[in-house]
Amino acid sequence: MDNNSEYLHPEFETLSVSEIRDLQLKRLKDTVKHCMNSEFYRKRFQEAGITPDDIKTLDDLKKIPFTTKQDLRDTYPFGMASIPLKDCVRLHSSSGTTGNPTVILHSQKDLDEWANAVARCLWMVGLRPEDVFQNSSGYGMFTGGLGFQYGAERLGMLTVPAAAGNSLRQIKFITDFGTTAIHAIPSYVTRLKEVMDQQGVDPQRDTKLKTLVIGAEPHSEEQRKRIEKMMGVKAYNSFGMSEMCGPGVAFECKEQNGLHIWEDYYIVEIVDPETLEPVPEGEIGEMVLTTLNREAMPLLRYRTRDLTRILGHDCPCGRHHVRLDRMKGRSDDMIVLRGVNIFPIQIEKILMQFKELSTNYLITLTTDGDNDNMTVEVELEELFTDDYSRLEKLTKDITRALKDEILLTPRVKLVAKGTLPVSEGKAVRVVDKRKVYE
Ligand code: ADP
Ligand code: ZN
Question: Sign of the C-alpha dihedral, residues 311, 315, 320, 321?
């Protein structure tokens, strides 16, 4: 490792677009051949009337049918594997709120490549073996735990598996161990700062923190800026999903101008979620990913449900791996209220523009009489509840700004800091209590 190099894997990170495409085609052909070891894909290819030999160019990818989360459920637990189970060394599983959970299998090579990908991301934002990395994210099945653990160790950092929650202990670790970098979900960073405030710990004065890695849940640019300001650090957006290993799929570089998705690991397509046809470059659509170096469970044209768009191929950092816009959310997160489509992130973006508000909010949907309504509860940054006219004006201003964005008038309720429920894992932003008419 050359500490002075901007790149951990220059041989991959600095490839030109055409070199990336050549590598992708080679890896795609290998992956497709390897997939024929999987009962699922063998059948899929037969049904589609194609063989691996039909994949001669990157464009031929379109001949391959999509893989969906439902396919993972239907083949639960091991029906997708492309290697014998005895050669797998790790299993991750999603919660599966409806029906079967999903299972993702890894070989030792998969885990090594995953650690390399995460290490590459962390190096890209300036972390070096001298850094102390505290992983304040859930461990266990949640891939943000082990994924960052192995990646940070691979980079050579002293890595603290602090896990999520227990903020007092987190703060003690940060100060005692000289933590310089933290990975956490954005909603947890806010909580951590609240406890720091209560303890009289000033992150800039009392800690060595300089870098945060935030991800695993949608958050707006405004929320990132809030987090950077309150912690006095740089906060980089990290995107990952269990089906693609976990963290390390796409990550911002120091330019903070979108997330580079590692195209030596994945082929990205952005499609219209209805027609499944590619959208013109730069337009928002559903991200579809094909893995290029997975051994245990490669996935071809996996529909992620995440909505984003391609920002560009060039970047001042010298990497040409395509840059993605921050995720707008999953298509399943979209709220449809009185026929209007709304993403929670749109609401967050507006709320974060009001400096009086904290980053905690909850959207509740209810049916009142014949109408479906939205209530937005948001915590105040400070308490100034005795000044009723000011609160009333603030509520009105927020309501108006929200209406301009989402075209519906929500009820806005300002609540005291620390009163909204906190979830252990990813933040729950929407509670739908609407009546369902059969
Ligand atoms: P689960 O499917 O149980 O939520 P995952 O950890 O696999 O577990 O979640 C992956 C999903 O989390 C992604 O598909 C995406 O919707 C969301 N996600 C992950 N990172 C980000 C990010 N940086 N910004 C927005 N959404 C993200
Ligand atoms: Zn860059």
Answer: negative
Distance CA 119, CA 402 (A): 40
pLDDT of residue 99: 67
Instruction: Provide the 3-class DSSP secondary structure of residue 289.
Output: strand
| Dist. CA 161–CA 148, nearest whole Å | 9
CA of 250 to the centre of ligand 2 (A): 11
Instruction: Provide the pLDDT for residue 155.
Output: 98
- 139 CA to centre of ligand 1 in angstroms: 15
Q: In angstroms, what is the span from residue 239 Cα to ligand 1's centroid?
A: 7
Q: Which long-range contacts (CB under 8 A, 24 or more apart) does 139-144 make?
A: 139/163, 141/92, 141/93, 141/94, 141/95, 142/216, 142/425, 143/92, 143/240, 143/242, 143/245, 143/246, 143/247, 144/183, 144/185, 144/215, 144/216, 144/240, 144/246, 144/247
* Ligand with the closest atom to the CA of 257: 2
Which token pair is 74? 């239907």
The pick from 146, 306, 309, 343 for probing ligand 1's pocket by mutation, whose C-beta has the most ligand atoms within 8 angstroms, reads: 306
Nearest CA residue ID for atom 6, ligand 1: 241
pLDDT along the chain (438 residues), means of 10: 93 98 98 98 98 98 97 95 98 76 96 98 98 96 96 98 95 98 94 94 98 95 95 98 97 98 98 96 97 98 97 97 94 87 93 93 93 95 78 95 94 92 85 80
| pLDDT of the residue at 385 | 65
Q: State the pLDDT at residue 369.
A: 87
Instruction: Tell me the per-residue pLDDT of 263-297, one tens digit each, with 9 for 90 and over.
Output: 999 999 999 999 999 999 999 999 999 999 999 99
Q: Which residues line ligand 1 (CB under 6 A)?
A: 94-95, 143, 215-218, 237-242, 304, 306, 327, 330
Residue 227 near residue 214 (C-beta atoms within 8 A): yes
User: How many A from CA of 373 to the centre of ligand 1?
Assistant: 27
Quick one: which of 286, 361, 300 has its CA closest to 38?
Answer: 300
Domains parsed from the chain with CATH numbers? 10-332 (3.40.50.12780), 337-432 (3.30.300.30)
- Other CB atoms closer than 10 Å to residue 62's CB: what's the count? 13
Query: Which atom from ligand 1 is nearest to the alpha carbon of 94?
Result: 3
- Ligand 1 atom closest to Cα of 250? 23
- The answer for residues whose C-beta is within 8 angstroms of residue 360's C-beta and 6 or more apart is 187, 190, 378, 379, 417, 420
Which amino acid residue places its CA nearest to atom 25 of ligand 1? 218
